[in-house]
Amino acid sequence: MNAEFDIAIIGGGPVGAALALALRDSKLKVCVLEARPADSASQDARALALSCGSRLLLARLGIWDALQDVSPIRTIHISQKQSFGRAVLHAEELNVPELGYVLPYPALQDALAGAMKHCNVSSVYGASVTRLINSDGHATIDYQLDGAEHTLHTRLAVVADGGKLLAQQYPPQVRDYGQSALITHITCSAPRESTAFERFTAQGPLALLPFKEGYELVWTAPHQVAQEMLAWDDSKFLHELHQHFGDRVGEFLTVAKRTCFPLGLRRAPQQSPMPHVVLLGNAAQTMHPVAGQGFNMGLRDAWGLAQEILDAAPEALGTEAMLASYRSQRRTDREAGIRFTDGLVRLFSNDLPLVSAGRAAALTALDCLPFVKKFVAKRMMFGANG
Ligand SMILES: Cc1cc2nc3c(=O)[nH]c(=O)nc-3n(C[C@H](O)[C@H](O)[C@H](O)COP(=O)(O)OP(=O)(O)OC[C@H]3O[C@@H](n4cnc5c(N)ncnc54)[C@H](O)[C@@H]3O)c2cc1C
User: Fold this and answer.
1) How far away, in angstroms, is 136 Cα from ligand 1 center?
2) Which residue from 40, 76, 295, 297 has its CB within 8 A of the most atoms of ligand 1, so it is best to mutate?
């Protein structure tokens, strides 16, 4: 049977949309099936810290200049609660103009969706994929649209749905950190321009990402505690935050609507579980946001897969040989990103005295040894493949 599409991308979130844009100037027939209705404003409250590497890739996709509301990060201050040891990274000592950028998830999604309207990719919104199988040289996708069932065939199905579609058939390896992230926007009396803070505490890491006149807060805590924090009135919330974070940005003044996300490491057992099918972004690996790796790595996945697709002969699309080459190209960066993030969460989310002293020594080394600083910063900015 002839497939109607060369590439069908399931999920037009930031990673799926980035792949679609990376393929737009090819002669390939590409479609994106996205469950959200067309032009629906995203309600997702999370902000994303983007690395310099992601900026370069988004510029190559032609959407960096279209992004609204981007705030730069030029300094990162890392500390741990109730212990000495801290590290400060400055853009200028690493010879880069910025260490990263902060922007709301919906702003990124809108810019990507806007660019997709003006390219030769078929985007089908309101299309919820219900089944994916592979058969004789292609993949078959069933989806629902406007209450009707539809089917399409493709040489390569890219699953970028965040991780639900194949989870029952191919259960992911899961590490439950027992933590949720409470996220919100806060203002304070003495904000420090373009400075992000990462503070490790026994109940989980807390991050303040500079955004507009205040900060995007990511405050992790055990699930039950996070639920209680959602219910606090604003003045108790601001007071507790001050107790937890300290005086570095003065008094906390206002807090916006709060939202909670459960956190864990979910890793698909195989990136390409069957021929003509590959998992991308969060569908392949969902990580704790502590190191801001999730989207940054998903974007590198998308870019890497696009190069693999563009280099492949038409008859090789979706074959095991092509997918093996993609897996091998991404292995080092993916493994390093997962290990780094998982290690940070486990090393820093406890208050054992010996571990605390070791952490303090590690932070001091990061602060004082330029080559360690450069190594860590380069990893954060560009991933393990450099
Ligand atoms: C609190 C928090 C903070 C974070 N902070 C950062 C950060 O600072 N930096 C960073 O790099 N990462 C961060 N992340 C991670 C980042 O949000 C994810 O890595 C990123 O959103 C993954 O994008 P994705 O496109 O793979 O999946 P998603 O964003 O989950 O998108 C999946 C898309 O697929 C669609 N879909 C789902 N099911 C179907 C279906 N059956 N059929 C069709 N479409 C479907 C959905 O509607 C959605 O549009 C954070 C995550 C959290 C929870």
Assistant:
1) 31
2) 295
